[in-house]
Write a structure and sequence with these properties.
Order of helices and strands: HEHEHEHHHH
Number of helices: 7
Low-confidence stretches: 161-165
Radius of gyration: 18 Å
CATH class of the largest domain: Alpha Beta
CATH architecture of the largest domain: 3-Layer(aba) Sandwich
Largest sheet: 3 strands, parallel
Oligomer: single chain
Strand order of the largest sheet: 1-2-3
């Protein structure tokens, strides 16, 4: 039996957590979107995501590994991926496992809080933050002697221009 729930309401983090915790598949079908935290939260819980290939969403989902990216408006592809995930237990398990392993700490609440606290401590000490087009999380971790390892998940660094950001 398949239950499909569609909600349109203002969400608190607690309500969103409850919904995502009980979901089997998540959809993010925005026409354009920035970096969507709901996608990261679903992936973190091992829930494959079917989403439009728009905005910052492709930074979060590895197509065919942790979810599926579809062209905006391609409802046939959305339906196919939902059916595949619902009926193919091996596919679902592989994607669920990949989803859990794909979320980087730099987008989690803890990772974000650590970056903000690191920046605040530097500014409070009168230091200037000269990032030289580096990511805050990278600089913070390098300074702490905990740089990213090659096998650790993180957002793609190549092809993203941080100049002027």
């Amino acid at each position: 039996m398949i239950n499909v729930c569609h909600l349109r309401m203002s969400l608190t983090s607690l309500v969103l957590n409850a919904i995502i915790s009980n979901a089997k598949i998540a959809l993010q079908l925005s026409l354009r979107e920035g970096f969507e935290i709901k996608v990261s939260e679903a992936l973190h819980k091992g829930i494959p995501v079917v989403a439009c290939n728009a905005g910052g969403i492709p930074l979060q989902i590895r197509h065919g590994q942790s979810g599926f990216l579809v062209d905006v408006g391609d409802t046939d592809a959305v339906a196919k991926h939902i059916v595949d995930l619902w009926t193919d237990k091996a596919l679902y398990k592989r994607m669920s496992d990949n989803a859990k392993a794909s979320v980087t700490d730099e987008v989690s609440t803890v990772g974000s809080a650590a970056s903000w606290m690191w920046m605040a401590s530097k500014l409070a000490a009168g230091e200037k933050l000269l990032m030289h087009a580096q990511w805050v999380n990278d600089v913070m971790r390098n300074e702490a002697g905990e740089p990213y390892t090659d096998d650790e998940p993180r957002l793609p660094r190549k092809g993203i221009n941080l100049q002027g950001a």
